[in-house]
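Our preliminary data section would be incomplete without showing what the modeling component actually yields. Below, a chain of 116 amino acids is followed by its predicted structure, encoded as tokens that our downstream tools consume directly.
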Amino acid sequence: MYYQRTQNFSSRRQQNWSRNQNTVAFVSAIKLGPVTHTVLVALMITVLGLIYLTQATRATSYDYETQKIDSQIAELNTQKSDLQIENARLTALQTVKNSSVASTMVAPTSTNYVAQ
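Predicted structure:
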């Protein structure tokens, strides 16, 4: 039996190919028409639009939450200022009542009112 070589070895350097260069080109067996391309582009745009809408909705929900928290902060600040005023009023009355000037005062014997 005799072995005969069917292919000849050819060096890459003879074909002007360099390292890491593809020597095979892939050709797809599936061919798409213009209508299919249009449908695919429309689907991609729709998906990207839906992704954008979900992101925008998240930002809006965060905005509503921050607005609600800001209103709570404003309400609590109002309550705090009201409590500070009431505390000052009550403290002032208690201080005046216990002062040395108030302890020397006497209740009046008679009270007269002026008619207008």
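The first helix runs from residue 34 to 97. The chain has a mean pLDDT of 81. Preliminary results of this kind motivate Aim 1 of the renewal.
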